[in-house]
Amino acid sequence: MGKTVTMAEEMQAAAQESRAGHAIQTFRARIPGLGVIAGLDVGRRRVGVAVSDVARRLAVAALVCPRVGDHQVLREALHARDVAGLVIGWPLHMNGKTSARCQSVRRFVGDLKGHHPWPVLLWDERLTSRGAQRGQDAPVTDAQVAAMILQSALDRLSLVSFEKKS
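The structure assignment produced for this chain is given below.
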């Protein structure tokens, strides 16, 4: 038997979906029509990085950077790839509420944007860590999770672009 969903839970889910739709439309308006988007999985010790192709159809795992200091290695990697925007995993609890890690990610985003004004989309990362293959080395897994987060956002971006054309 499945879990019974209350009306309040349905309304909360609908409101969350509406906020996500608004956020992605705002992000879409702030990035150029073509160009690489980077996805980041911000962990306690490392940041997994993935990048899209220029047409924004495919996300691939790229690298893992340490999460220490001024993020110089990460910024150089993003500049070298001429990144147009960032999709950053937003670590919500399974019930949709913000987690303690959200504050840490928010500080990370503030530090990173203090050096370059990339448009940022915070993207729900629930279930992505579980979807990555945990049998591999952690640095590879961090980049795989970043690719999963980015691919999810790219898929949604393509829907937003399609809906605007229709």
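Interim note for the steering committee: The mean pLDDT is 83. The helical segments are 7-30, 72-80, 100-113, 128-131, 138-165.
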